[in-house]
Write a sequence for this structure.
């Protein structure tokens, strides 16, 4: 019934995240890095204050990711997506190929197990749209064209990444039926297209009713309900829940100014989003960094993960100029939840050993720590967007960038 | 790592709660009843969509209660408490005696087990300050003198109720050391007095630093951190966590207008508080209502629970006039989390059988369903408070009351 222990964990995580955010802000670094490092410090192999496999913390992590992506979706009008959609598709697809085959080849060479190599390759595929979104938001550059392409591409490669997982899972289990793959792919693509194309219209049609609602903050209730609902549907279809949350946010992007959704969601964001980053950081097994065999694997896999996205995604931005190509490549580098999910599936099926699991999780966090300072440097000195509806949230950090 | 199932449950609970709130508002009934009945309907013995013992839902229930009581505390200035403190103390203490001995005698007569009777008596003691606070808030009468007395008394009897639990637990286990009781009592009373007396000053001293903070919404972060921290401390001292949340809210009551805390906390409130009521409702075991033996026990225990508070608490308000006495008596009727906690402790120690456990939980919810319409009728036609800082939240429902 009651769980004082949980309240204590929630208190420690929240407070440490905010203090670290403040510290990193003063050090002229993205606050999100502070939050992730708090997670590493509180995690099972360091202070041990965040126990592994806590259902409650995992749920708070998930809810944090969902709210984060909903906020990013709120900033993304479907009309914009149509303009940059082709480029995002190219960037997302190209960013899949190199990391997958790079990781597969590397692990097969050092380890000899094809099954393990395939799972590690699959785990290296998907950019963490959550982490990238937070970094871009902290830098105040969400509206830049490169940011839009990266966010779109991150959604694309989340979808492709989960298809790769289905393929790989089937391949390893030997039950790869073309029909089941087609069903998964069809469901995923259909969901994204339908929610993306019709979400705005459906929400717009429901809006007048909700505005007459008698309960407190009816519009906010509708927004949260659709966000949770599409997240659950995405999960049921085998996609990452955050893909649904992003699409839900997009569906409300037209209503955002009228309903003041951003102002209302910000307090919720400030409460729950730190749990995503802290709990993600806590998944790092620090002992892999001191064991000689795994340390080499971490270094190799991380280098391939970075190079694969820089070359693949940066290359797909060909013709946009060197700085834009670099921004897009770097923006796609952070791995996160999807990679960790793939690794978890591999671990639970007995395909991936605990060492390689730790290697993949560590790679996810390292790529996440590399990207923010690099993005900050690349965006430095460029004019930043300040659309009239943007409050303090997205523009915090601006003072820090010029320095 | 991921928990789509949890997201689905969260979606269903949140959406059903909002729809039921809307329906009950239109039916001119307090929305909170709709939320509790949604819980009953979704609970294990009805639709089964809320599984018993889900750690995640229990944690969300707890976080909902904590945010609710923090908001109530925000509305309670320590200076007010000093004025009405004596009366609250009398109401709280008197409301303990009758239900405890009434419940004890009744169960001993029908059941013959002294241990069981003592636990049921202890579970009948504590008013649910969470439920009462929400009802008063929905009615827009939080600032009425009777409401203040009831909220103060509910905190008092939460503390006394948990002392009774300690006594009873020791009595049944045979390890009742006067020292341990004194330590618990001293810790509880000391915490309340220290947090109540010095909270405002400590927060006031920290305020200028936080206002210079670089992170987004620093003041909100401090408020949430103190709220979670005092809740965890209260839990560690053996008190209900919500007592800490209430005291934390009180400590910020002076800063509330300047920091716009209410406006910032409302979206969080609207997201998490429904989980408290829905998950509480889900604890009802509907099968006790159809078994002849238990149905009689439910009726008897519920009648004694209502009569004990009406007579004890109403009597302690002697001299305030009949209507005020009735309001105070009725306001203290709802039982909730503390009663259920006591019953859970009894069940887990093997003292209370599953039937009597279900009886106690059902009594808790029935008393909760009785109070709102009665309070609404008693407050009807009286002028209501509309202090300048009160937003839509507390005054919603006003239109409904006059009807």
């Amino acid at each position: 019934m009651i769980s004082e222990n949980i309240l204590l964990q929630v208190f420690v995580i929240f407070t440490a995240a905010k203090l670290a955010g403040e510290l990193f802000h003063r050090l002229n670094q993205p606050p999100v890095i502070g939050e992730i490092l708090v997670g590493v410090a509180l995690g099972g192999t360091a202070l041990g204050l965040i126990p592994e496999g806590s259902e409650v913390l995992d749920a708070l992590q998930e809810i944090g990711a969902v709210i984060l992506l909903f906020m990013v979706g709120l900033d993304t009008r479907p009309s914009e997506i149509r303009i940059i959609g082709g480029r995002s598709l190219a960037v997302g697809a190209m960013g899949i190929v190199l990391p997958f085959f790079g990781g597969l080849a590397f692990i097969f060479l050092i380890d000899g197990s094809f099954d393990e190599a395939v799972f590690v390759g699959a785990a290296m595929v998907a950019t963490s749209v959550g982490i990238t979104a937070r970094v871009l938001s902290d830098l105040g550059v969400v509206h830049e064209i490169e940011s839009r392409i990266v966010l779109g591409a991150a959604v694309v490669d989340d979808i492709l990444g989960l298809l790769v997982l289905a393929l790989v899972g089937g391949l390893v289990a030997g039950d790869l039926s073309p029909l089941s793959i087609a069903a998964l792919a069809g469901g995923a693509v259909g969901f994204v297209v339908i929610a993306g194309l019709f979400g705005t219209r459906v929400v717009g049609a429901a809006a007048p009713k909700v505005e007459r609602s008698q309960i407190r903050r009816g519009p906010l209730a509708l927004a949260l309900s659709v966000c949770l609902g599409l997240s659950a549907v995405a999960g049921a279809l085998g996609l990452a829940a955050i893909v649904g949350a992003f699409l839900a946010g997009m569906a409300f992007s037209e209503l955002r100014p009228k309903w003041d959704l951003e102002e209302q969601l910000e307090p919720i964001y400030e409460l729950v989003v730190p749990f995503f980053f802290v709990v993600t950081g806590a998944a790092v097994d620090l002992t892999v960094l001191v064991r000689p065999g795994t340390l080499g694997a971490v270094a190799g896999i991380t280098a391939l993960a970075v190079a694969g996205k820089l070359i693949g995604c940066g290359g797909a931005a060909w013709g946009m100029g060197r700085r834009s190509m670099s921004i897009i490549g770097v923006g796609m580098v952070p791995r996160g939840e999807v990679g960790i999910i793939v690794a978890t599936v591999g671990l639970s099926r007995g395909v991936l050993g605990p060492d390689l699991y730790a290697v993949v999780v560590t790679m996810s966090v390292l790529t996440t720590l590399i990207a923010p300072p690099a993005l900050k440097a690349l965006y430095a000195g460029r004019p930043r967007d300040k659309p009239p509806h943007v409050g303090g949230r997205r523009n915090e950090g601006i003072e820090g960038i010029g320095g």
Chain B touches chain A through 56 residues (CB under 8 Å). The two ends of chain B are 50 Å apart (CA to CA).
